[in-house]
Write a structure and sequence with these properties.
2 domains; Nucleotidyltransferase, domain 5; about 40% helix; single chain; alpha/beta; 10 helices; six-stranded mixed beta sheet; globular
């Protein structure tokens, strides 16, 4: 059974395949084993992301665990995952439209049993190793960027690098930022430092006040996106990767899948095409 429906994974793969750089054979004798097809390795990586299984458990006679890791690192070095995420956001903006006038930021702590560069003592899991994801979404919950850090890090210091992901829309994506941006934050960001940062960036802030319950407002969409990450991608819910760049690559791939799935959901009620899913994604 495939890790993701074909209606979602096929358009993602079509774009991913275009971004893969041409392989140059550097073997001095040219007598090594035939190269495993990129599509086979890509499908294995999707299984790792969705199922959260180790590379050894996903590997079989068609592709070894070493090949999966090596090809993954090649694609990370070429920036394929980051480019894929950006192109999916651009496609969504052209078809549906990103609402960047209001953005939401929130942190999410997950388990990191193997430790690593983005792990730290978790304050919500008895001091075990954990990773924090500081997630930025637009008004409807489409993920725009993510910053990872140890679970012991506070949300507030991660706000600046998280909001810096908005810069991607002014650097060649053709989307552009609106003149007025409102940032919605929970009570963990309620401080003078946060307000000074928002003033510096020219953003308005809607920040929940400490000590007052039931102040959800428009922040529920970021909680839903965190749920999409953790419930749809086991690798993100229990982070077993030790290197930050690998974690970021998996997050970018997960974001691309989420964006394409949301695009299909929006288009299902307004458009018809030959391979349109029988049910709304």
């Amino acid at each position: 059974m495939p890790a993701l429906p074909s209606s979602v994974i096929e358009p993602v793969w079509d774009q991913f395949a275009v971004l893969i750089p041409e392989h140059i054979d550097t073997h001095p004798l040219g007598c090594h084993n035939p190269r495993i097809p990129d599509r086979t390795v890509f499908d294995k990586l999707v299984q790792v992301l969705v199922l959260g299984a180790s590379y050894e458990r996903i590997a079989d006679s068609s592709c070894s665990a070493t090949t999966i890791r090596n090809r993954r690192d090649e694609w990370i070095a070429a920036g394929v995952f980051t480019q894929l995420e950006q192109l999916c956001l651009e496609a969504y903006d052209k078809s549906v439209g990103l609402d960047l006038s209001e953005v939401i930021v929130d942190g999410c702590i997950v388990k990191a049993p193997c430790g690593g560069e983005a792990a730290g003592r978790s304050p919500v899991d008895r001091g075990k190793q954990g990773t924090k994801r500081s997630l930025l979404v637009e008004a409807t919950g489409i993920p725009l960027g993510c910053v990872i850090a140890g679970a012991h890090r506070n949300d507030s210091p991660l706000l600046r690098p998280t909001l810096e992901h908005l810069g991607r829309f002014d650097q060649g994506m053709g989307i552009g930022l609106p003149d007025d941006i409102t940032v919605h934050l929970d009570a963990g960001y309620d401080s003078a430092k946060t307000r000074d940062l928002l003033d510096e960036l020219g953003c308005d802030g809607v920040i929940s006040q400490k000590g007052f319950p039931l102040q959800a407002g428009k922040r529920w969409v970021v909680e839903r996106t965190n749920s999409w990450h953790n419930r749809g991608f086991r690798k993100l819910a229990i982070c077993t990767e030790r290197r930050a760049r690998v974690i970021n690559a998996f997050i970018a791939l997960a974001n691309a899948v989420i964006v394409i799935r949301r695009l299909l959901t929006e288009a299902w009620t307004t458009h018809r095409w030959d391979d349109r899913p029988a049910r709304r994604p």
